[in-house]
Amino acid sequence: MIDDKLVCSHEPLQPAERRAVLRFFRFYAVCKGLLNFVRRRPGRNACEGWLDARTALARARPREAGWAGPTIPY
Q: Residue of 14, 30, 49, 65 with fewest CB within 10 Å of its CB?
C-alpha cells in the first residue's frame, strides 16, 4: 500500500529543509517497521523519496463505497 504525504508550505522548501523532512520520514518508516514487527504484521515500510504533488495525487485512489475504516485495532 502506498501512503504518500503532501508537505505544504507558503514557500518552496530549501534543500536543507527537504533533507530534514526526508530524514524524518525515513526514521518514521523504521519506527513503523519495528512497531509492525512487534504486532506481527508483515510488510514493507520505506520512504521512497521526494515526489511532486501531481505525482502523489495521480496515484491516489478513492475509497470503496463499503470501506468501514482500518482493519488494524489501535
A: 65
DSSP one-letter string for the chain: ---------SSPPPHHHHHHHHHHHHHHHHHHHHHHHHTT------------HHHHHHH--PPPTT--S-SS--
- CA atoms of 8 and 6, how far apart (whole Å): 6
Q: List the end-to-end C-alpha distance of the chain, in Å, as a whole number.
A: 18
32/7 Cα distance (integer angstroms): 19
Q: How far is C-alpha 58 from the chain's CA centre?
A: 15
Conformation bin of residue 69: beta by default, left when phi > 0, alpha when psi is -120 to 50 = left
Does the pTM exceed 0.90?
no
